Amino acid sequence: MIIVMKPAATEANINAVKEYIEGLGLNTHLSTGKSITIIGIIGDRKRVPDTVRLFPGVDKLIHLTESYKLANRKFKTEPTVINAGGIKFGIDNFTVTAGPCAIESVSQMVQIAETVKAAGGRALRCGVYTAETDSLIKEVKARTNLRIVVEVKRESLVKAAAKCADILLVGSANMENYGILKECALTGKPVILCRRLAATVDELLTSAEYIMVNGNENIILCERGIRTYETSTRNTLDLSAVPVLKAKSHLPVVVDPSHSAFVMEYIKPLSKAAAAAGADGLIIEVHPHPASSATNSSQALSFNDFNSLMAAIKPIVQLEERTL
Amino acid sequence: MIIVMKPAATEANINAVKEYIEGLGLNTHLSTGKSITIIGIIGDRKRVPDTVRLFPGVDKLIHLTESYKLANRKFKTEPTVINAGGIKFGIDNFTVTAGPCAIESVSQMVQIAETVKAAGGRALRCGVYTAETDSLIKEVKARTNLRIVVEVKRESLVKAAAKCADILLVGSANMENYGILKECALTGKPVILCRRLAATVDELLTSAEYIMVNGNENIILCERGIRTYETSTRNTLDLSAVPVLKAKSHLPVVVDPSHSAFVMEYIKPLSKAAAAAGADGLIIEVHPHPASSATNSSQALSFNDFNSLMAAIKPIVQLEERTL
Amino acid sequence: MIIVMKPAATEANINAVKEYIEGLGLNTHLSTGKSITIIGIIGDRKRVPDTVRLFPGVDKLIHLTESYKLANRKFKTEPTVINAGGIKFGIDNFTVTAGPCAIESVSQMVQIAETVKAAGGRALRCGVYTAETDSLIKEVKARTNLRIVVEVKRESLVKAAAKCADILLVGSANMENYGILKECALTGKPVILCRRLAATVDELLTSAEYIMVNGNENIILCERGIRTYETSTRNTLDLSAVPVLKAKSHLPVVVDPSHSAFVMEYIKPLSKAAAAAGADGLIIEVHPHPASSATNSSQALSFNDFNSLMAAIKPIVQLEERTL
Amino acid sequence: MIIVMKPAATEANINAVKEYIEGLGLNTHLSTGKSITIIGIIGDRKRVPDTVRLFPGVDKLIHLTESYKLANRKFKTEPTVINAGGIKFGIDNFTVTAGPCAIESVSQMVQIAETVKAAGGRALRCGVYTAETDSLIKEVKARTNLRIVVEVKRESLVKAAAKCADILLVGSANMENYGILKECALTGKPVILCRRLAATVDELLTSAEYIMVNGNENIILCERGIRTYETSTRNTLDLSAVPVLKAKSHLPVVVDPSHSAFVMEYIKPLSKAAAAAGADGLIIEVHPHPASSATNSSQALSFNDFNSLMAAIKPIVQLEERTL
What we know:
The structure is a homotetramer. By secondary structure, the first copy, chain A, is of the alpha/beta class. In chain A, 34% of the residues lie in helices and 20% in strands. In chain A, helix 4 (158-164) links the parallel strand 9 and strand 10. In chain A, helix 2 (106-119) packs across helix 3 (134-143), helix 2 (106-119) packs parallel to helix 10 and helix 9 (264-276) packs parallel to helix 10 (303-319).
């Protein structure tokens, strides 16, 4: 971290800041340029309060290092593989999770699971975990051969959710719900962490760090669209985030094109693009009869459309030397 | 609601949509233009699934009316006054809420409350309600003459918060946390509802509607900055939202410039601007010693700065024919 | 186009609008719903002034059809192929344009052209057309076997540029520079039209329409990044725009990942993603020695990196059944 | 400027960068922290190519100082007053420019000028300067007592525009049109420079700097709305930009609420807010009969509305100790 002083800062201003920082038990290092002085701070930046910017003569504070360490590729250069009950996310795997927005019945879930599995998917999205869906999810789990993904929306239900699911999903609205993040950390279960609608890549990684610091390093990052001024899609899928996240972090990255594209015809090309951009997997909304789904999801793919999507990504996944 | 058909839609396409809608128990009304046909739907749009866009020949669905009714000025043209334990929000009141980000001690809160009151503030912001702060807040309430505002961040604590506070604040991160919104509705207490960082004005009003439909119409809307590409302020305070919200809704609107401006020098001019734009009040972060506050809030105003701000807005409030 | 009346609109309000519209020589069609009345306008919406919203009782105007016709896929369902001096953009072609940001010397351009051609590129980007670069460009053209692309930044130079180039490029800053667009229309030459940093897809198509209406239908659309709040890339490449533009228009779409990604390592995955998303080509910045380029372009690829990129997209292009 | 090296950078990496910088004739200054090394560069940052980020081991470049000097308040702390043919912008003046989007006739302009002048306006907006409007503008100038503002949209017409106008206006679309900016610099005439729809405050100041470096320091900055995801106004007026620009620059700042608000009812509250936020003036679109204006401007104010707006801002301007 450095503190940049204004050109008009006096020596007294500079000394006051220097002494304050050193009073916190940190070392400082002065660089005097032609017009400005920089005070470098050596040691843990967490200990320097942001309020140092209120000192006279201070222009700005600049953090030179990221706010995340465990999630940071600078400190763990090898990409991470997450093992989720036997299936893997990362490196040479391309892991497709699919399913409906909400469970309507066990028999329907079994039917969906069969389609997903036959097409090459490895995990089944089973909607949101609630006390009501608990037994349904358990039955679905018993009757299918796919890993079970459930979304957790209530802090108090995370533990129970972890008992019936293989993977927890934290939706974009909860990316910074620290109560939920902490509970997810305590379960130790793999977590798919979705980027908030207006979160930066660094904010997503800061949330991942929070779970990791609390003891669970099994994090799978998920890009699912950001809010921009463009209205032709519901959100703007930020596929640049795939290589950016891979450069900044060692964690696997999956893409959910369903929630941003919204319009069925865009989901297939964006899924192919995600695979080609280096994503480690996809999350796809699938429903046997999208037009009559209980949750009214016009973005859900029919079985035919899902099969066609899977067939289209297969050769791209192979080019990437990954296994579907 | 109308359904716009594509120019290439056939008569069979149009009839299929028409019959489907009528099968839902709704009436339709066809308008045939030079190149396109519109199917108007008469009745409750809630009953038309969004998936109707999957029918062949459908171009798009357009909602002609807003998704909120109780909050909508079209259906209640008179502005609403909210009475919060004796103080009022709306019409000819200009209601300033101030206080720190977090309670550090009762004595400090009492000191802040005296400053806020002397300067013309009417409500005291007492940080986030938790089991730990409960007794502190109660003591603060007993020892000051201001209404107490607490932020609720946990669904399970809303009821208890409502017992010790006069006004509940739903922070921007929870604008769409329906668990919290519902609990707030059940308490019947006035709610300051903050706009999410990337929420539209209509989404804010939709959240307000949710609380109102669940039985609590005492909603105060709060603009506190939206996320844009501009980085010179933490968020971009959207002051246009003040007249826009007043045109679209009858509910009072307050502005929190502290969280968007972040930099102390910008808070005063933006507070004046908010008053001049027609806001019904402000929420200001105040701390006796911002540079050494426990929460490291460089945006908190010192007592001197707060007094100066209040002096500056007073004549503008008078011009607006409001009472501070 | 429809005019939506407010719930409180009186019959007199409705009649006044109706008579005004009919006075313009247009037909109207009333739909009366439960709470609102819609006035449908049959005929050319261009003739209805926007100021009709100032009439008492009017809630809003909604355009049901796009503002572009020639560029609109609804009116020409077959995708368009653009022939640019023998090379083609669209359908089963994947056309790579590459080159430096600015011409430094003829010999350097010839060297770049050889690399581009050997790797499968078909067009050479020759920087901005100016009086000074005119003879250089002509010499480059004479000595290479690639089609020549020049950017036009001055209305007065478009004609001259069209004499020495095969394809004109309108940069994002000039997407709405109607002087330049009109001159481009008059030349009849193929135009690569770049999306402005904050333009919607519909605004890009409206600019394309302007050139087309003025007599030149040889338009190639180019997505090159939009401005969002995310700062890890210079701009956010909007790859959803590829399928969206293909759904809305019949024109070819190319992608320029260099200007948005900015960072070299992101250009290759985004190029692959663009190919997989269905783009009709790429524009790539290439320089023999990026670190010492005259224009200081850290986003330019070296020859090695360019060759590696081309090798990586080749199999994806084949999967898409296109010819590089 | 500093270069931040990656934690994994070797001594050889650091030395290579250091030697390269010193080879450019600049001095360096190394700071070695716990995990990273910073290379400070002493001297003119313009001489360090951006491509230095391509060196192995480099994490990022950080510019510590702004890219503008003449416009920077750090180097000229006193606010600037611009004298435009007798009227002033800045400090204790509040200068209202008003007029239509386009000249329809001389007599109409004279009528508008009389209204603007009577209400306290000092400058008349006369649309875009073209060869056709030249003589009209001259006649309007001869017959009114207001300073004349014309928009320049063509580089080749700036000189002629400067002959008939007192103030040149560079619209938002041309904020980075360096041809026009340079011509404006050469005229020496006061320039109102509008912020581009997606420009940052720093980019606006960089454009101002360009004009100033080229010899014309008479720049008036203009905020007129930025593009965000919010759709209830055409653009989002960024009133924070007023105090931000005042903190970063000594130049006067005016606000144009007409083009962002679009809807008439929002223009008055936003004008009041701009005055209260410390703006040095307003630009308001006025038309005798908005509903029948040639340019179809539903955002233009009628004379009555303009008079009401001026009456409303007058006391706020007085509170700010400014002269209307």
